Amino acid sequence: MKLVIAVVQDKDATNLLQALVDEGYRATKLSSTGGFLREGNTTLFVGCEDYAVNEVLRIVKQVCRTREQTVTPLTPISGSTGESYVPYPVEVTVGGATVFVIDVEKFLRV
Ligand code: 2BA
């Protein structure tokens, strides 16, 4: 058995969860926060048989979109009064999804 962990954008999470459940997969949705953008995203846990991993990945790829997002890190500038920081917007491409596939040693429902 495998555990597929997919970090997706909030905008795709509802559709992805629905698509997985429609195809008979069990999934758990967690609210998460990206370390770089410090914005909300969604992490889905999908426990499935080994043979189903590619089908789960296909659904993830089909639903999740890449999007451009602007992040504004503070950039240091040096002036006569010393160093100060100015906002400098940078565009990054986020998604479709960041996926980890992990071997499950034991699966229990007690
Ligand atoms: P964030 O960490 O908020 O990253 C959002 C987007 O910012 C990333 O999109 C990437 O385009 C950019 N980015 C991240 N770190 C960067 C850096 N050091 N320099 C420049 N740009 C950077 P994605 O790659 O699609 O990642 C989306 C989300 O997936 C991430 O949100 C994070 O929550 C998760 N993620 C990505 N890689 C991960 C990893 N190796 N381990 C755990 N979570 C990961």
Describe the protein in words.
- The structure is a single chain.
- By secondary structure, this protein is an alpha+beta fold.
- It has a single domain, classed as 2-Layer Sandwich (Alpha-Beta Plaits).
- Helices cover 22% and strands 48% of the residues.
- It is built from two helices and eight strands; from the N terminus they run βαββαβββββ.
- The strands form three sheets. Strands 2-3-1-8 form a four-stranded antiparallel β-sheet. A two-stranded antiparallel sheet has the order 4-7. A two-stranded antiparallel ribbon has the order 5-6.
- β2 and β3 form a beta hairpin.
- It is elongated, with a radius of gyration of 19 Å.
- Residues 7, 34-37, 41, 92-95, 98 line the site of ligand 2BA.
According to CATH, the fold-level topology is Alpha-Beta Plaits
List cofactors, ions and other ligands. ligand 2BA
Ends distance: 17 Å
Q: Could you give a short account of the major beta sheet?
A: 4 strands, antiparallel
**Which CATH-level-2 architecture?**
2-Layer Sandwich
